[in-house]
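Re: folding output
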Amino acid sequence: MSQLSGLYAITLEGSHGKTLLAQAEAALSGGSRILQYRDKSSDTQRRQEEARALLALCQQHQAMLIINDDLELCQHCDAHGVHLGHDDSHLEAARKKLGRNKIIGISCYNDLQLAHHAAASGADYLAFGAIYPSSTKPAAVHASLELLHQAKSELDLPIVAIGGITPENALQVIQAGADMVAMIQGLFGQKDILLAARKTTRLFK
């Protein structure tokens, strides 16, 4: 799981086809080694096609593709793993379905108790947020930098920070203990995605 560090790019909902692939290519070329495909639509065929195309891109860049909240899609395209939220498939059931070799990440919001439970249940990484106000999820609970620091000291798993993170504020998040910074608008909402990815990636070195 040594790849579980650095810039964690999450695709922008509403981006499809060539636009989606061009955005992903820019993020991966800029140094992201983790890409999450996040699409909540019910268009199964399109989602399968896009996931397969994104996986091929990730393989070209020695990166990992994580599927948001869809065990079947993860299995269909043989992605590297899934990310599950509070209302998604139960961790133990997901592990049984996907096996030991797939990565399972869990959203822990601002709940350390939930994080400890997820770690004990076999999660591979733990996500906390929103660190800053997020345009993607404006009603998201707030997770402080102090919480990140505490999570890093108490939990022996990679920590992801998410929510309102940009290349300009990512350093203090990393310094607080985040092994990965997840970015949606902070990356794909930028005029130059490649440059934003490179700026963020450099912060880890």
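--- second protein (sequence, then structure) ---
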Amino acid sequence: MDFQKIGFVGLGLIGGSLAKSIKDKYPHTEMIAMASRESTLALAYEDGIIRNNGFIPLSDFSDCDMIFLCSPVKINVEYLQKLKPMLSSDCIISDVGSVKGDISKAVADLQLGSQFIGGHPMAGSEATGYNNANKYLLENAYYILTVTEEFPKEKLDAFDTFLSSLGCLTMIMTPEKHDFSTACISHLPHIIAASLVRFVQNADSEDATLKTIAAGGFRDITRIASSSPVMWQHICSTNRDEILKAFDLYEKSLQEFKKSVDTSDEALTLSLFSEAKDYRDNLPVKKGVLPSAYEIYLDIADETGGIATIATILAKNNINIKNIGIVHNREFEQGVLRIELYTQDKMDEAIAILQKDYTVHN
């Protein structure tokens, strides 16, 4: 399929990054957008990303070949209802939300199963808005597609091929499996991080001792608590059932740790921490737990020799790399390339050298 005109409802971090990536790979594609702020549209227009310089009527989306819903989940559902009467029969409509239950139900109620495919790019950060969007955000990041039997295979293949051409790593699963998976690895951890911050705040003394010494591991493990409260309000509301399932499983695990401490069962304590360490050490990306890692993240283009060039630059400056690799799951992570160094001073040197030619996140 040839996607000549693409529409965006919402142009924040994910929508903006997706639009910038498309414009980079397909510069002649016409793109239009709606956003809550006219200033966002004006900035995207100045960047040469979208055609419209300001608000436009929804009817302008009627001849789009593809539409991305990039707003909070409930707003995406509202726009799905508004768009239905004017959609062309060949138009593919997708979302980028981290919850699929509500929008899947809306799709079924509206009988849009043959045109809608759920999407969830596993990329992002605490930083929000179009100003923080970049064309590399989705490169080599997992992009989950939730598909029903009604969605034609030829459309799935076309959409999959299109996303792959942007550098995304697509995964296909049911909406139900998606929502439970994200409840476990994203939604509940965010709730835990927020609750841990509130716990420390409430347990702190008048002289703010806990706040003063909170650094390193505590900052790493609670970093995601700085994410948008409004977004997490929407997520907790729309993925309620799956989050509660995850809560029940987590509470059982937490009780095991409590029991091991309460009974002074050293063997159980060792076993629990060992199991956790073994699993954690085998995750694709190691970040955010004690001890603090000396890591930096870079935005780089997916091109031959890109990583080798960076490795050579560091080697010439006598900086040894402990680990290096592409970050595939960048949800609430910044940067495409992860570099781990051995010491703080070498990390500082690497940042000073690389930021002359690259965008460096730390």
